[in-house]
Design brief:
Elements (H helix, E strand, L loop, with lengths): L2 H13 L2 H7 L4 H15 L4 E2 L5 E2 L1 H24 L12 E7 L1 H6 L1 H11 L3 E7 L2 H9 L5 E5 L8 E14 L9 H5 L3 E3 L5 H12 L7 E3 L3 H9 L5 E4 H11 L2 E4 L2 H7 L1 E8 L7 H20 L6 H9 L6
Parallel strand pairs: 3-4, 3-5, 7-8
Antiparallel strand pairs: 1-2, 5-11, 6-9, 6-10, 6-11
Helix pairs in contact: 1-2, 1-3, 1-4, 2-3, 6-13
Length: 323
């Protein structure tokens, strides 16, 4: 059964005549008659009493009940996809599933998500914190709608835009007056997230550049656990400077920037907003992307952070986020 046919049946029952239904739907009477006849052929039942006024038979009342439900559901789904409420007013609703690195979720997203909810209270939010590799896998499988990951998406089916820049710093439980030597690193451990975390990969690359080929890394999984254990003197961590500064009062940790020769290669990272095809965005995802673009520009203007060479090249190649 076509929705168009059900809408014509509903109009005939509501107006009491084929002619009035045709005027209501801006069509000709013969078109309404043909659609109702088609419904009767499909159901094998007489649906209308052709009296004055026209009214539904018992079989017609049963189908009309289902028709009204199907038409309401269709209209609601269409309105949500168009970012409207059923009366045609602008209203973004639906569930938005966001994936994020835990550091970004802790540092960058709370203010952004709160603002999104204030602007669009009809949006329901789901946030999943995972390492970059797991987030990309979830995005490709359709389990999340968007993700915040380190660097541009490696898959051609995904699109990405750099939105935040982070400076990675060495974090310790004790004040650092200088950058540790390779021998000191060999005698210590790093505390990090599990495999697939981009910050953990930076630790391995940084240590390899210092000749530490057998760096010891302990997986602690949660950001608060990592910071708490660093504060207790268990080892070092490599984390976002902005995040460490925000959490310093809670945990009493200390940090030091990477030396100039290492900073250019290892300190600066782009956090990218990654999605599938823009044509497949829901109104909730589009509203989030628009807010994110404004928010990221404000952060970039307020944080005078100098990107490294790799980040400068990446930013020149990136296309602007859709409005």
């Amino acid at each position: 059964m076509q929705l168009k046919s059900l809408r014509m049946l509903e109009a005939v029952c509501d107006t009491g005549s084929f002619g009035a239904a045709a005027q209501l739907l801006h069509t000709v009477q013969s078109n309404v008659t043909a659609h109702v006849k088609k419904l009767e052929e499909e159901t094998g039942a007489q649906l209308l009493e052709r009296a004055s006024p026209v009214h539904p038979t018992p079989a017609g009342r049963l189908l009309l009940e289902h028709a009204r439900h199907m038409l309401r559901t269709h209209d609601l789904a269409l309105a949500q996809l168009q970012g409207l409420d059923p009366q045609g007013a602008s209203q973004v609703a639906g569930t938005l599933r966001i994936g994020s690195m835990e550091t970004t979720a802790a540092l960058r997203l709370p203010v952004l998500l709160a603002q999104l909810r204030r602007q669009h209270p009809g949006i329901d939010l789901e946030l999943e914190a995972q390492p970059t590799a797991a987030l990309l896998e979830a995005l490709m499988a359709g389990r999340i709608d968007c993700a915040f990951v380190n660097g541009a998406a490696p898959h051609s089916g995904l699109q990405s835009w750099p939105v935040f820049r982070e400076e990675l710093v060495l974090v310790s439980g004790q004040p650092l007056t200088r950058f540790p030597t390779p021998q000191e690193f060999c005698a210590s451990v790093f505390l990090a997230f599990r495999q697939g975390c981009s910050y953990r990969q930076r630790v391995e690359l940084l240590m390899a550049s210092q000749g530490v080929t057998a760096v010891r890394i302990m997986e602690l999984g949660m950001l608060d656990t990592i910071l708490g254990c660093v504060a207790a003197g268990m080892g070092y961590a490599l984390l976002s400077r902005a995040l460490v500064e925000a959490q310093q009062q809670r945990f009493g940790v200390h940090w030091i920037s990477l030396p100039p020769g290492l900073a250019e290669e290892f300190a600066w990272v782009d956090t990218c907003f990654v999605t599938g095809s823009v044509a497949g965005w829901s109104p909730a995802l589009r509203a989030f992307a628009q807010l994110l673009g404004i928010h990221a520009q404000a952060i970039a203007a307020g944080e005078h952070v100098r990107p490294g060479p790799a980040q400068r090249v990446h930013r020149r190649q990136a296309e602007p986020m859709p409005a």
